[in-house]
Amino acid sequence: MSLHGAVLFVWVRSGRNRVLRQLQRLKRPRYLVGALVGLAYLYSLVGRTLLLRDSAGSASPGVRLFAELSLVVSVWGTLFSAWALGADRPSLTFTETEVQQLFPAPVTRGALLHYKLARSVLGTAAGALAATLFVGRLVSAHPGLFFLGACLSLTTLSLHGTAASFMRTRWAARGGWVVFARWAVLALGLAGVGWVVLEALRAHPLPAGFASARQGRQWLLTFLDAPGPRAVLWPGRLLVGPALAKSTEDFLAALPPVLFLLVVHYAWVWWAQTPFEESALVRAEARERARAVRAPGRGAAMGGIRVGRQPFALRARGRPEVALIWKNLIARQRMGGGLIWLLITVVLGGTLAALLGDPTVLEDSRRVVSPVCLTMAVVMAVVGPSAFRMDLRMDLPKLELLRVLPLAGWQVVGAELAASALTLGAFQVALLAGALLLGREEDLGFEGAWVPALLGLMAFLPALSLAGLFVQNAAVVLLPAWVPVGMERARGIEALGQRLLTLAGTLVVTLVGLVPAAFVALVVGYPLFDRFGAWAFSVAGVVAAGVLAGEVALGIRWLGRVFQSLDLSEEQTE
Amino acid sequence: MTSLEPRWRMETVLDVQGLAKTYGAVRAVQGLTFRVAPGEVLGLVGPNGAGKTSTLRCLAGILPPSTGRVRVAGHDLAMMPVEAKQELAFLPDEPRFFEYLTVWEHLNFTARLYGVEDWEARARGLLEEMELGGRERALPGELSRGMKQKLSIACGFLHAPRLILLDEPLTGLDPLGIRRMKASLRRRAEQGAALVLSSHLLPLVEELCHRILVIAKGQVVALGTLAEIRERLSGPGGANASLEDLFVRITGGDSDPARLEQSGP
């Protein structure tokens, strides 16, 4: 059997087996319900509008212009990155399985290259389909043509990237001066584009103020129609032309140059090909390593983890479950610090920008930053439990390891929750403290209530986050097949539906858990209001937090028993 | 290692009674009953899918048994799991680690869990013994398969467990590592630890184990010393047969576990 035949066999059988497996899973109610919800969601998202064609191509000219510009800029970005970014080596990526199965097979390098190109065509087709569903149906009256056009342009860009990587590999082998020449040409190109844009701006200066969006669009159209920008954008426009064609005639008219480019790029790749096996092997191993260190939904560095300081020294004596908290805090530090830094950067960056803009803005920025901090603290109570996942959601794939530990189930569950809860809670308290320090109640219209309310929130919001974290972890233990854990992520419509149901379930359970807390807080806080005024808010917040914490404590005891008897035998048969 | 003082008959570190584990309709382990004494090394052998890993996972408290009872150092694993686990170490064939903890931090973590106060001295000794000296700051992703196996063993030995459960402990080790590992396991047994060793490497089992438990289709088909199994096994050439010969004869296609004589514990 030739490579083409073998590859076709693998693709067809893999696809068939995946579909069969998904259909078989539908016999189980939880997957059937998930599939129905997933289908309903997909229908509500794209299916209805696609079938009814009521919104196809209904986007305003402004949106169309924006879409065209975005696509053209994306084309330029892809071209620039192909020549400027990354290492000077072939960009072909193979999985470790492909390396093990195909590289030792009796096939030529050309056949491997064709295989990889065919795979990239499949990938671009999937990308084009997604673009059609989410963008194409809005900006084009002919989603089918948009899909075809997107396929052609994405495939051409993919071929360009491959050819560029081959050329860079060749040039790098010739020595430093060739690399220098490449950078010089790139720099000249960028300088040229910059000069063209500046000249065009001189000819068509930005109006002092736009009276309407239409006026702004008009200026942009005039600017883009100037000779310089038109020349710069021409290659990109040429490539996205078929996708954005307004009619079949326009599509056919825009097609020949793109087809020509496609053929030329294919010939270029074939001509420029260099040995890629070694770099493919290195990349496959690097990808596998990165996969191994990557936590679910985290943006851990692809290259690995930076070993840094520990959050605190772990002594051998003391409660053993603290070891779990310690290790999860380390995980938070080494694998999940990005979110916190992003939020801190947003707050600090916003403040700095405001200060640099105008000296009088110091006072205004203070007025702005304080509510922003408060809003973020509240928002974190909702999104934080999903974002901070250094708990059972991270560790459940290592169930075997957890189960051998000399800890009771409730200790494991409690300790696993603690790291995320502590980090999230500390972050919220810091934000609220920021709001407290920067905000003035007279500015914000909370006469006399600002400080007591914030103090109450300092107790309540971390407890609310803890409750959210508990519900998410409980979902993992109770429905391990529904919640994505570890690196594996279930695929398919039923998995999509399950995720939606889990999300909805989490919100409902958290809200139900809030009822007793709110009731007790009301019972305690209301009588105190007459006597202590706004300070009753603080007391109510602390009481509500206490009730929530008590509920979570009870829940941990219960969940610990479930965890102890958790039997993942189905996934762990020999 | 062929002889053992009969004290194992008096004391027991691991006591398994009627252990069974089912996965839906599949009966992976059926009615295992055996004991392991301090200082004893019990070899667990059987063909692929015989139920060895399921047995070890049940003994380690990872999987709840469907029926039966497991006692570790006198603690019922179902009733007193924390106390029982405090006394055991489970070393899987493919050890898994926390990707973000270094080698040294894994040992620190283990020390806190088991309350090993002199862990630093012990850890240094174990790292030297496992030839991991100088790799303290390495992350698991930076270790070879053999090194990971050694780290798993170092973590497992840190709290001086009374029961050590090993699933293919020599996987990934080089010849020198294998020799050191065998010596290390012998030393632990001499110091009084009970070992249950599952392996397909029959010469290793023959060399290290005092007694051998052969299972097939989840059932015990032979249990005893090599000499006892030889003696009880009828058939030509049985008296001089190696463990490999016996294994093939016991678990071969023509053998029916029900027909084979089962040795009592």
In helices, the fraction of residues of chain B equals 25-40%
Discrete helix count of chain B = 9
How many domains of chain B? Answer: 2
Distance between the termini of chain B: 19 Å
Instruction: Characterize the largest beta sheet of chain A: strand count, sense, and whether it forms a barrel.
Output: none
Span from first to last CA of chain A?
A: 33 Å
This entry's quaternary arrangement is heterodimer
Q: Nearest-angstrom radius of gyration of chain A?
A: 29 Å
Description:
The complex is a heterodimer of chains A (574) and B (265). Chain A is mainly α. Chain A has helices spanning 3-25, 29-52, 61-84, 96-102, 109-139, 143-174, 176-203, 213-225, 227-240, 248-272, 277-293, 322-335, 338-357, 361-387, 392-395, 399-404, 409-438, 441-444, 450-478, 493-532, 535-564. Chain A folds into 3 domains: 1-52; 56-290, no CATH class; 322-571, no CATH class. Helix content of chain A is 77%, strand content 0%. With 265 residues, chain B is an alpha/beta fold. Chain B folds into 2 domains: 1-87 and 161-265, 3-Layer(aba) Sandwich (Rossmann fold); 95-160, no CATH class. In chain B, 34% of the residues lie in helices and 23% in strands. In chain B, the strands form 2 sheets. Chain B has a 6-stranded mixed beta sheet, sandwiched between helices. In chain B, helix 3 packs parallel to helix 5. Classes of the chains: A mainly alpha (574), B alpha/beta (265).
Considering the chains and any ligands shown, give keywords for the structure.
heterodimer, A: 574 residues, mainly alpha, 3 domains, 21 helices, globular, disordered C terminus, B: 265 residues, alpha/beta, Rossmann fold, 2 domains, six-stranded mixed sheet, four-stranded antiparallel sheet, disordered N terminus
